[in-house]
């Protein structure tokens, strides 16, 4: 038998007391929790319960307007009805689907599938026409409702379409500025809420709530609608005339970096963008990388002037080719241009001269430094999606043929750039040597017009000294007056520019017959207002020169634009030629490049000059003497036509005498004859080999020994 210890009455009472205290504490805790939930958190849980019963219908905000720099509307939003369904309220999905399909022109099966979805609400169709919306209202179908939704409209159709971009059915930006600035343009979505039961049915007399949408911000672009329209008009004409794959034009204010026009043809209508292939929608001026050809010579030439490795009056000899870096660079003119100054080499667009300057006088390291300073090989940071960087080789990264590669880059081959980079490089020259950051948006405003952000001009860096920029601008002016850019001249506006006829590389490597004609320039040269580039890609006509096709397109656009901006024309007094030793007034030879033989002969005849013809073509590709030269009245000017007889390349020259001359003078003399100087010593020439009068191949070295003055060494052959 087990005995349990006896419990005293005091112990019993103590246990009861502890049990009572525990029960009271638990009750107090439950009461406190209940008070907290029912009183303190009452509002919170009421809202949660209400939100469980409130089923929202989203309301899109009005997408922000896009304006040009003058306030003209380029993209707007208008209200259009959209039809939606509450599946739980649709009693007959099949019958409802058939009735909606007859009005909307949709597949009844697709609509029925949406009506049977287990969702609170589903969209059936957006952007209804007024007649469709009214027909649906008349049907009074259970569970079917209409709500207004904004629809994007581009009132000018194709104008600046690649810049503006497109939007999707959910009010979202998909391409272009619509995509880049989507966060500003989209606005904040609103909603309509109605209290519904567990089955999704609206509770009669239940809570309903309307949260208005906040409209998107307005963009004010740097684009000018008038300049853009005229650029697209002229591009269309040029592309059709030349049967090019496409054409583009970019114009920029050089002092601010504002893009005034960014045109492309063929274009597309963003109101119906699905009707066009995707490649037409691409803004090639920003996203495409192209080999620039001779327009890149503005970079090579201005960099060489800035580095002090060439002067405007330096002499070069072009026999039609140059052997450099283990390869051969040929001049576009068979037989070459012979002896010419650096200014004339720019006018002539002479490839061998720019190959020598790029690869030898500048050299890969210095050339690369200047090219990067101009903005090549990296994005410029424009406010537009998908900006390409281009392709610029790094010195030392080319395993074989690096010197030849940089020789080719000197005249714009073997390097890829975007049209935007190219026009900004010219803008750097026009802006006194300072590269500005390009931009497309001037201001961002609220829907009621308050300015939120304003884009200020931003200088990226100084590339050239003001003196160098001014000097090279004068040389670009000479290209138009005396060189290949004559068809870009606008009376009274003093155009400066550079032509380009670039070979298009094959996808498999090397170059074929396809070309791109271009013209890069600005005006007026003494106070530039607009810098622009025209590119016509893969022309199908002959001849395919930039000076023949791109230059007049540039002229047509720029003349309209400068007149529209009220830039005053300045009448230039014609240069007065000097008199010869006998007091006879000399005659200035007019520039007749890229004119027809008949036009050239007429122009020369009016100046009192005679005409000689070489070749059987239609257009003048070279003239001797060059435009701007002073000659006697009645002098015969030789016109070389495009289907000209190819002269034999100058393969040999006589070594000139150089004894007694300085190193710099000897270098200039030998360069004029196409010979290479090998220097021994310093001072003045005392010995040369081969001796004067010896016939040697072009490109041969001439060893010259130099001694300081007073050394007692006699000059000897």
TrEMBL record:
Note whether Membrane occurs among the keywords: yes
User: In which broad location class does this protein mainly occur, judging by the first location in its UniProt entry?
Assistant: membrane
Pfam families named among the record's database cross-references: PASTA (PF03793), PBP_dimer (PF03717), Transpeptidase (PF00905)
Superkingdom of origin organism:
Bacteria
Keywords, in A-Z order = Membrane
Localization, per the record, is: Membrane
Enumerate the InterPro entries for this protein.
Answer: Beta-lactam/transpept, Beta-lactam/transpept-like, PASTA_dom, PBP_dimer, PBP_dimer_sf, PCN-bd_Tpept
Annotated stretches, region: Disordered? 688-717
The PASTA domain sits at: 583-643, 649-708
UniProt family annotation: Belongs to the transpeptidase family.
User: Could you identify this protein by its name?
Assistant: Penicillin-binding transpeptidase domain-containing protein
